[in-house]
Structure formats: C-alpha cells, structure tokens
Design a protein that fits this description.
Blueprint (H helix, E strand, L loop, with lengths): L2 E7 L14 E2 L2 E2 L5 H10 L14 H6 L1 H9 L13 E6 L7 H8 L20 H11 L5 E5 L2 H15 L3 E4 L4 E7 H22 L4 E10 L3 E4 L4 E4 L7 H7 L4 E4 L2 H4 L7 E3 L3 H14 L5 E6 L1 H7 L4 H20 L5 E6 L18 E6 L6 E7 H11 L13
Parallel strand pairs: 1-13, 1-14, 4-16, 5-6, 7-8, 11-12, 11-13
Antiparallel strand pairs: 2-3, 4-15, 6-7, 8-9, 8-10, 14-15
Helix pairs in contact: 1-12, 5-7, 11-12
C-alpha cells in the first residue's frame, strides 16, 4: 500500500511569481527575486565561499528537476543545474494574499487563505495601546520592550540585557502576519513564555494575525545572546478540513516533522517531532523506515529560511542546500516501491535580495518514486499538491486542486 512523504523546503523559491510586483521588501517590489537561481549564480561567481567553495552542488535535486523548474518558472539561469530531470517536475504559484508560512502551508494542504491577514505598520510604535495593555496584563509586567519591526537576532542583542533586568517581554513583528515574543529561558522562564504566548494568541487571532511565536533565548550581556530550538508557533486554526484531515478520514496516519504541528494547530495530525534540521532529517529517516501503509509524513525544514534567508547569508543558504541534497538522496534510496516523495516550498527568501523579508516566488514541485514516470507537469497551483497526495492515498476529499499523479 502507498505512503507519501511531503517535504517543504522552507523558502526555497524559484522566482517568477506572476504577482511578485505587488509584494515588497521595504519599498522594493519582489519582481525579479529568485532564491535558487541567485544562490547558484553567486556560487558560480565565487561570492559564496564561506564554509564551502565553487559552484552550487546539488546533484540529487538537480536530477529531480530543480534547475528545470527554475527555468520553467522564471527563465533564470542556474549554473551547475542542468541535469535531465528524472521523475515528475514542475512549479507552482500561490493565490493567497501572503508570502508567509501559514499562507503557503495552508494552500499546499488544499486551503487557500479565505481572508486578508492582519499586519502591523512598519513604524514605531508598531502596536496599538490596547494590544500593549493586553500583553502587559497577561505577562504581569509594567511594560514591554521592542514594539517594532525587527530581526529576531538583532532585537535580543539590543534589548536582552534590559529584559533580564526588568523582566519585560520583548515584542516585535515583521512583514509577515506575526506577533513575536522573545524572552530569556532562565530569567523569564520558558514555561512562562509559552503560557504568555498561548494566552495572548486568541486576541491576535481575532484580528487575523496569523501567528504568535514564542522566541526563547539564552546567554548573558557579557557573552551575548542566542535563540534556542524551543520556539513554538501559536497559529490560527484552519477554518476548514485540510489535507491532514482528508488522509485521516480515509484511515491513514499523519505524522508531522518540524513546525507542521504548530502551523496547523495539530489539526488531523497524529504525531509530531521537532528539533533542528539535522534532528528532523533523522526523524524523516525513521519515518521512511517505519511509517504505516497509507500514511502521510508531512515535514518542514525551516533553517533555509530562519538561519540563512532572513539573514541574507548566501554562503549559509548554499551550504544548507548542499547538506540537504546529500541527505535527501539517502532518503530516496530507502523508499519502498509504492512510496512517493514530493519536495516543494512555501514561499521564497532570496538571500541576495535587499531587505530581510520573504520574497514572493513560485516554488518547485519535484516528485519521485519507483512508480512515478518522468515528465514535466507544467505550471501548477499550490492546491494541486494536496489534491495529488489525497488522491494517491485514496482519500475521498481532494479539495479545489487537480492531481498531477
């Protein structure tokens, strides 16, 4: 019996979104952003030499059709990615009015976002007095720090020492529909931070802010601060059944790896495993070895985005792609004869692009398995991924998409 492994390479966009001119990093439209192509070009030009060297080397992803998908989506040249694709390959565009994690993942799971997300203005203060009072009341603090758009690493460097002195939570946002609270795991307490985020989330969700994110960190003013892996997202619950529900209703198990459980508030998900990307890859190996017949394993590898895209670290992003390529080749070698593995993404985050926000891009669809033929599936929609998985696993619900399997 069939199994599906649906893997989201968070932010690995391939350019060419039809509406990219209407999405911005600061005052610059995303028109022309291309995460994979620009990384490959930088590598070929010797501009990504930190911890690696030479052209981008992703032979497994290339054989699956990554370079071909970039060309299909955007017409961009990707040096070193010229293999003849094996399996099914194509690209997909999003219709939801967002370039963030929930928008991309909901749509990949068959549910275009049915409303406009709530965003905060890029000005100081970013949050209105009513929200500030609510957060302070729940936190039991006389005030909060931050109250602005900021990078997560920069804002803890700026306010970490003050936070440890007065105990005020550090609150900030970004171009995404998100409210983030950073706090020291020891002086503030991890459990207290998670409780604070859990209790303020309904207020934010009522205003269609997609996620409240707990951002714990450790360290000292003398030695510096660093974020930990105990992040947790408190997301709006999807307002309708999604792919995970469809598979579960068909009798299949659904296993989440990474932040999938947070994104979908565990809707339709039986088990969840979290950790660093290297730990998540081990969980994926275990799933390939032991997941049940008829199951869906839904994984998100976030560090492309969180560690390298937002920080505009081209070398780091290239290293992450090359590490992932080596690992996913080993995963593919372990697939059973009826298994299908689908690689895709949720948005872009071009590390060569000005600003620090996501970029509006199409994403690759790369499909492999012993029974999967070779061929181009063309330009598709995000929702086609959900329809394909559901149909392959024999679910009666397939949503608004059209299967490519």
């Amino acid at each position: 019996m069939a199994r599906v492994f649906l893997i989201v390479m968070d932010s690995v966009g391939i350019g060419g979104a039809p509406d990219s001119a209407t999405f911005f990093n600061k005052d610059l439209p995303d028109l022309g952003a291309n995460t994979v192509a620009h990384i490959a070009q930088a590598c070929a030009q010797g501009r990504a030499e930190e911890g690696r060297t030479g052209p981008l080397r992703v032979p497994v992803l290339d054989r699956l059709g990554l370079g071909a998908a970039v060309s299909l989506a955007s017409g961009q040249f990707t040096p070193g990615l010229g293999a003849k694709p094996q399996g099914l390959w194509g690209c997909a565009a999003e219709v939801s009015a967002g370039k963030d994690t929930p928008s991309g993942h909901w749509e990949l799971a068959g549910l275009p976002v049915p409303w406009q997300w709530g965003y905060f203005p890029d000005e100081e203060p970013a949050f209105d007095a009513k929200l500030i009072r609510h957060v302070c009341d729940v936190a039991g603090s006389a005030g909060l720090l931050g109250n602005c758009h900021a990078s997560g690493t920069e804002i803890i460097a700026r306010y970490g020492a003050q936070h440890m002195q007065n105990g005020w939570p550090i609150c900030y946002t970004s171009a995404d529909s998100v409210f983030q609270i950073a706090a020291h795991e020891e002086s503030f307490g991890l459990d207290r931070l998670l409780k604070l985020c859990h209790e303020v989330a309904p207020y934010l969700h009522d205003n269609k802010v997609g996620r409240v994110i707990a951002r714990p960190f450790i360290g000292t003013p003398q030695d510096g601060f660093s974020r930990t892996s105990n992040r947790r997202d408190f997301a709006i619950k999807p307002p309708a059944d999604i792919l995970t529900d469809w598979v579960k209703n068909a009798g299949g198990k659904v296993h989440g790896i990474g932040k999938i459980g947070d994104i979908f508030t565990m809707q339709g998900i039986d088990t969840i495993e979290k950790g660093t990307d290297s730990q998540l890859m081990q969980y994926l190996f275990h799933a390939v070895e032991g997941a049940e017949d008829g199951s869906l394993t839904f994984a998100n590898f976030v560090e492309f985005d969180s560690l390298y895209g937002h920080r505009r670290d081209v070398s780091g992003y290239a290293r992450a792609l090359e590490w992932f390529d080596g690992q996913i080749g080993q995963i593919i070698a372990k697939l059973a004869v009826d298994d299908v593995l689908i690689l895709t993404a949720d948005h872009g985050n071009d590390p060569t692009w000005p600003g620090t926000d996501h970029t509006r891009e199409q994403v690759p669809i790369l499909v492999t398995g012993a029974r999967i033929p070779n061929g181009c599936i063309g330009q598709r929609r995000f929702v086609d991924v959900a329809a394909s998985v559901a149909q392959y696993l024999g679910a009666s619900e397939t949503g608004p998409g059209t299967s490519f399997l």
